[in-house]
Design brief:
Elements: H1 8-20, E1 24-29, E2 34-39, E3 42-47, H2 48-58
Antiparallel strand pairs: 1-2, 2-3
C-alpha cells in the first residue's frame, strides 16, 4: 500500500490518529512511507502501514 504525500491534510489526520493512540505526531516521510511519533518522551518511527493497522486495532469504529 503506497500513499502519496497529500500535504497538510494528511499530516493533520495522522496527528489525530496518533493523539487517539496516546502518542504525539512528529512527522511523515512520504518517500519511505514512515510516521515519526513521540511515545513516553522517546522518538520512534513506524512504517505507515503498521501504524494504520495499530490504529484500526485500537480504534475500530473511529
Amino acid at each position: 500500500m503506497q500513499f502519496k504525500d497529500f500535504g497538510r491534510g494528511a499530516r493533520i489526520e495522522l496527528s489525530k490518529m496518533a493523539k487517539l493512540l496516546g502518542m504525539k505526531f512528529i512527522g511523515y516521510n512520504s518517500k519511505d512511507q514512515q510516521v515519526s511519533l513521540e511515545v513516553h518522551g522517546k522518538g520512534v518511527t513506524y512504517p505507515l502501514e503498521e501504524f494504520i493497522q495499530q490504529y484500526e486495532r485500537i480504534c475500530p469504529t473511529a
